[in-house]
Amino acid sequence: MRVFLASAFLLLSAGLFAQSNFAGTWALNESKSNFGESQFRMAAASMTVTQDAKVLTVESAMSGMDGQEMKTSAKYNLDGTVSENPMFNSSRKTTATWSDDKASLKLAHTMTFDMGGESRTMLSSDTWKLSEGGKVLLIESARTGRDGAEMKTTAAYDKK
Asked: What is the reported pTM?
């Protein structure tokens, strides 16, 4: 009986702390999203996400300022080591950290670029979590605006 209870406890514990799997094809749901007062939003219109134990890969598509579709691809290491992905004319360094319960994933980003001959560093973060039984992916973003104030947005994606 003890062996059975111990086995049941281990299986239950493993299930409770299994990391979320964000894999799938996702479409932006603007009615569930909150972009605040910002006129400028950087949310992708659609994403295809693959995930294994080591890497989260995100293929994104969004409309550019000229109306043309822009596609981007990024890979994030899930072991806590820094990932580096090209962004604009620079690269963005990201460290992924799981929450204690493995239900959410925080991507902390650092990007350094030149602006008017001056080097600037931009810090931002995205926290990924599933809701509605895994049918909705919420990405809560935080970044510092030009005026120094923190801007927060939430992009909601429906699983296709």
From this structure: 0.84
